[in-house]
Amino acid sequence: MNEQEILRVLVLFEGVIEMGTSTPLKMNKGGRNGVEPNPFTDRDVRKVKSGKYNFGKNYISMINESLAKQGKPAVTSEEYKLEALPWSEYEFQDKVIVYNGKRYLRCYPIKDEEIEETITIDGVPATQDELDIIKKYVPEKKMSKKQEEVGVTEENRIMPLAIAFENINYISLRFDIEH
């Protein structure tokens, strides 16, 4: 299937998808403030993932589900001060993002669902020694200040992902057919 055919199916779908991705790993270059230069800067270091994700869900709905699990009241888009995406725009609301002519799939990891993850270097799984070095250069993911302000806890935070179509290896959708 090409990108246009995939889009025609995705715009109609909301639910759980199974997806495999291979994305470049974001790493610091090092070489400053006493940190050694990153020895993998010129290598193709990728995070290869496979698992289930929520797709097509509204971000505020996801925040409110998280708050409800914590026994806290729901918030509106206005209370949350939800604005347009800061770096792009939706081509299909809550599903497909476009930035500089590239398409990205918007999805969310499912809590308590294991995502298989492997770090590869030039297409080969990294050794434990290589992983130990790589960890030093991967920036820490921080929780959204807005989520924190409305009372979402660290363990219940919502992690929206934007996966470039070019980094998607496969997508599997499940449609329930009513008879």
Relevant terms:
179 residues, alpha+beta
Polypeptide structure, described:
This protein has helices spanning about 5-10, 60-70, 75-80, 130-135, 145-150; strands spanning about 15-25, 45-55, 90, 95-100, 100-110, 115-120, 125, 160-165, 170-175. The chain has about 180 residues and is an alpha+beta fold. It is globular, with a radius of gyration of 18 Å. It has 5 helices and 9 strands. A hairpin with a 3-residue loop joins strand 3 (about 90) and strand 4 (about 95-100). The protein has one domain (about 5-175). The mean pLDDT is about 90. The chain starts with a helix and ends in a 6-residue tail after the last strand. Helices cover about 20% and strands about 30% of the residues. Strands 1, 2, 3, 4, 5, 6, 7, 8 and 9 form a 9-stranded antiparallel β-sheet that branches.
Number of strands: 9
How many H/I helical runs?
5
Cα radius of gyration in angstroms: 18 Å
Tally of domains? 1
Q: Unreliable segments (pLDDT under 50, ≥5 consecutive)?
A: none
What is the compact description of this entry?
This protein is an alpha+beta fold. It is built from 5 helices and 9 strands; from the N terminus they run H-E-E-H-H-E-E-E-E-E-H-H-E-E.
Layout of secondary structure:
Blueprint: H1 3-10, E1 15-24, E2 45-55, H2 59-69, H3 77-80, E3 89-92, E4 96-99, E5 102-109, E6 116-121, E7 124-125, H4 128-135, H5 145-150, E8 161-164, E9 168-173
Antiparallel strand pairs: 1-2, 1-9, 2-5, 2-6, 3-4, 4-5, 5-8, 6-7
